[in-house]
Amino acid sequence: MQTPVSDQVTTGPIEGSTKTYVATESGLSVPMRRIALSNGDHFDVYDTSGPYTDPDVEINVHNGLYPLRRGWSSEHRTQLAWARDGVITREMEFVAVREGVSAEFVRSEVAAGRAVIPVNRNHPEAEPMIIGKNFLVKVNANLGNSAVTSSVEEEVEKMVWATRWGADTVMDLSTGKRIHETREWILRNSPVPIGTVPIYQALEKVDGEPEKLSWELYRDTVIEQCEQGVDYMTVHAGVLLRYVPLTARRVTGIVSRGGSIMAAWCLAHHRESFLYTHFSELCEILRSYDVTFSLGDGLRPGSVADANDRAQFAELETLGELTHIAREHGVQVMIEGPGHVPMHKIKENVELEERLCGEAPFYTLGPLTTDIAPAYDHITSAIGAAEIGRHGTAMLCYVTPKEHLGLPNRDDVKTGVITYKIAAHAADLAKGHPRAQERDDELSKARFEFRWIDQFNLSLDPDTARAYHDETLPAEPAKTAHFCSMCGPKFCSMRITQDVRRYAEEHGLSTVDAIEAGMQAKSEEFAERGNQVYLPVVE
Amino acid sequence: MQTPVSDQVTTGPIEGSTKTYVATESGLSVPMRRIALSNGDHFDVYDTSGPYTDPDVEINVHNGLYPLRRGWSSEHRTQLAWARDGVITREMEFVAVREGVSAEFVRSEVAAGRAVIPVNRNHPEAEPMIIGKNFLVKVNANLGNSAVTSSVEEEVEKMVWATRWGADTVMDLSTGKRIHETREWILRNSPVPIGTVPIYQALEKVDGEPEKLSWELYRDTVIEQCEQGVDYMTVHAGVLLRYVPLTARRVTGIVSRGGSIMAAWCLAHHRESFLYTHFSELCEILRSYDVTFSLGDGLRPGSVADANDRAQFAELETLGELTHIAREHGVQVMIEGPGHVPMHKIKENVELEERLCGEAPFYTLGPLTTDIAPAYDHITSAIGAAEIGRHGTAMLCYVTPKEHLGLPNRDDVKTGVITYKIAAHAADLAKGHPRAQERDDELSKARFEFRWIDQFNLSLDPDTARAYHDETLPAEPAKTAHFCSMCGPKFCSMRITQDVRRYAEEHGLSTVDAIEAGMQAKSEEFAERGNQVYLPVVE
């Protein structure tokens, strides 16, 4: 399906949906995506796409989005500080509506440090969202030009495209000369929190030579990004000099870019990381903008062979130490996790992170559960992401089919996001999130009742579901036919079940035993009907 | 990459591999796929592709494959009967080499009923393979024309294509007039065991009217298929009359085709299923050909809402009862499982199946862990397949992206098979299969040492991995470049780790502490090198 484009970004609602807003007591309006159903009913879902899917909003990337949160608070305090003081902020109220929980519950989770609301006071365009184990599992999409690619508009479109399909946050990992300008465009046009890795820009300033990095240069870079409005920052402050040798016998050594930069600096100077030695000063800077720490796992495993090793867990211990320091400063914190981990070693990562880091939200990259499928690492990692998500990981960083091989294109970004929405939702179901199963049931009912268009529109990707169906049965009538394209009209069922059910309802039978008592009559009715039966979909 | 085609089927080795054969003491030759490595070494992997990937074998689908197993045994006994008598058959010996275990271990697992070797004596073309929790997790691919499609050659090619990418068995679910002929072609050309659902053909014989089915007609159909050489058969003998009402209040009722046929028959006649009442006779027929039962779950859930409900588990209890009857008759048995199950309810399925069915091999369809992603159900189900596999499921029936929407094409079949090889391998890693991690480590080493072509060839899909890499860096030299296409020459590392490692090795440091002692010297050496550092792949 074609979508209109304004200033090179995708706008207009997702097929079958409209934008709606829920008004709160204090007058906030919280966006939701409303899926219309053919039976006249509708189903509302969490909406990450921002104003781009609202036809009533004029989009101009040169002007940026409306600064929703401007003036929500004049004081320079963090969500953590407010929460500790028992104050429910508008951000908390906004988030509560999105999640379907009470604002007080949101406040208490933030106060405990079990959840973070990453909203830099200088990024008023962002719609507040929450990351924590007791909320919907979130998905992050990494974007970032390599030096050679793409206009700034293209970078903005990548962000819009990722959030359209469900990315809850976006990390801008751009490198190269126009890094500041690119980030500015993304921030002014982003409805979701933006994360960065400041060490990348700092390295640009010293021509890519890590040993030339200094605390002062790094600090100034962080302040520059805080001023712009970056909502959370990856800081690899846990890569200590003494941990570097622990990677010597690994199969794949250090695979984190930031981790290897800091390891290189430590080796070059044979001194402790300036990120570690100046961590308290860093906390003071982030606190004054309410920027959230994403403490990076610079020593994460790059292969299943290296999973859960001494280097990885030594760093995690240090991240725990830093978490408590950051909290003393009133700064929100989440913790980054692996990487590559076989299924049986995944749960241990969550348990250890929660114990060492005081239940700070865990934010993992996959993990990939096997190394043998390059070109399919969105799948090898979705298996691990769903598993680590169900055990309590709060946000999943997506992996695209191009991982390890090349730069993701537009299709790869969509595939990565949809795949991770699946993993996040599978985890939500396993955790028993109150709202999670409603959507599964709505779609399953539509499937069972042959409401094809409802089935498409309730799915994560209506365009592709419809396209696959049309490959076999293009005709429009097929969308309302009471059979499945796999088996054809003669060979379709669930009808048999509908008969059983109808019978039960007609006779108001309240127990299955009672239904059973009616089986004889049932079988006669069935014989009268010419014993017609249809065959179902799956075998 | 183009592959030559003979008689419309794909032949020739997979990119980067050659066919090799391992000779056993008793003179059997067991096929393996040998992956050549650029360092002169090689890595052998389990090979399901049969003679089609051996350039020295002339393929003619009209003649069929060489009958490998003809004359291996003159007696009409089952692998189970031999195993119980302490006899190691050639099939067991063949399987032992493929799995890298002792033949005696194979025998003991078959004798215990924990594993099956599905080999009809009338399918001598098949290469023996084993299905059991203590062996590599297997993958089945469902094929089957809808009445309208495809020549018989096309059906054979689908089977060849699926086994090329790793399908361990294939189920022929064909319907329509040419069902017998199609199956004959597939059997004579298949190097893997073929499974069927005889009730489909039986229904064709009564013009699709279930109530016209009879034991006699079904029995004759089963004998016809046994004679042809079908290796295992799905029998929905657990769908009892009294269970049908248990589906009345389900969200998606009965979704198994065979299950609804038998439910319809039971309702029409208000009698118990003839599959259940004549089960012992059925056992005698299967025993005389050594055809393996795949006891079907006709009441499996068709949505996460219906998972683990009374209908599903009531049927499973009956399957347990039938398992013990079949074993008394010396017939091999596996048990089919769901379907649609949320992650937190998956483990219970395996535990219950093992307890009720005496650890008979479990063979599951997915399960899908959420219903909200039609067009991506290979992924929603790969998550469940990996999870159920790690808990002991022996074979995973693949799901393609077209599930619920349409008929899979050639690309869908490949995507489904590769996706399920990932799930099976992730489960093998989690179960600690001795051979599983070797391949991950080989590929990770290749990745770390920038042996790009080795990385492609060691992957599950060398063609796609190479194609994705070439999108960014097409030039041939890039295949040997010591950097990654994501970051470019200046921005690539692991180099730092290689330095750390090289240092450790040069100094013969045996402990990490000792390495640490050498850090000062290390930092000087690093400074001399101009402090050059590269940035790694993933962030």
Automatic annotation (TrEMBL), chains A, B:
Q: Which gene encodes it?
A: thiC
Enzyme class, UniProt record, top EC level: lyase
What are the EC numbers? 4.1.99.17
**What Gene Ontology terms describe what this protein does at the molecular function level?**
4 iron, 4 sulfur cluster binding; phosphomethylpyrimidine synthase activity; zinc ion binding
Listed under catalytic activity are: 5-amino-1-(5-phospho-beta-D-ribosyl)imidazole + S-adenosyl-L-methionine = 4-amino-2-methyl-5-(phosphooxymethyl)pyrimidine + CO + 5'-deoxyadenosine + formate + L-methionine + 3 H(+)
Q: In which residues is substrate bound?
A: 142, 171, 200, 236, 256-258, 297-300, 336, 363
ThiC-associated domain span:
14-76
Q: Does the keyword ATP-binding apply?
A: no
Task: Specify the superkingdom.
Answer: Bacteria
Cofactor remark:
Binds 1 [4Fe-4S] cluster per subunit. The cluster is coordinated with 3 cysteines and an exchangeable S-adenosyl-L-methionine.
Query: What's the cofactor?
Result: [4Fe-4S] cluster
Q: In which pathway does it act?
A: Cofactor biosynthesis; thiamine diphosphate biosynthesis
Q: Which UniProt keywords apply?
A: 4Fe-4S, Iron, Iron-sulfur, Lyase, Metal-binding, S-adenosyl-L-methionine, Thiamine biosynthesis, Zinc
Q: Which GO terms describe its biological process?
A: thiamine biosynthetic process; thiamine diphosphate biosynthetic process
Physiological role: Catalyzes the synthesis of the hydroxymethylpyrimidine phosphate (HMP-P) moiety of thiamine from aminoimidazole ribotide (AIR) in a radical S-adenosyl-L-methionine (SAM)-dependent reaction.
Annotated residues that bind [4Fe-4S] cluster are located at: 484, 487, 492
Per UniProt, where does Zn(2+) bind?
340, 404
Record-linked InterPro entries: ThiC (IPR037509), ThiC-associated_dom (IPR025747), ThiC/Bza_core_dom (IPR038521), ThiC/BzaA/B (IPR002817)
The lineage is: Bacteria, Bacillati, Actinomycetota, Actinomycetes, Pseudonocardiales
The family annotation for this protein states: Belongs to the ThiC family.
Q: What is this protein called?
A: Phosphomethylpyrimidine synthase
A GO cellular component annotated for this chain's UniProt record is:
cytosol
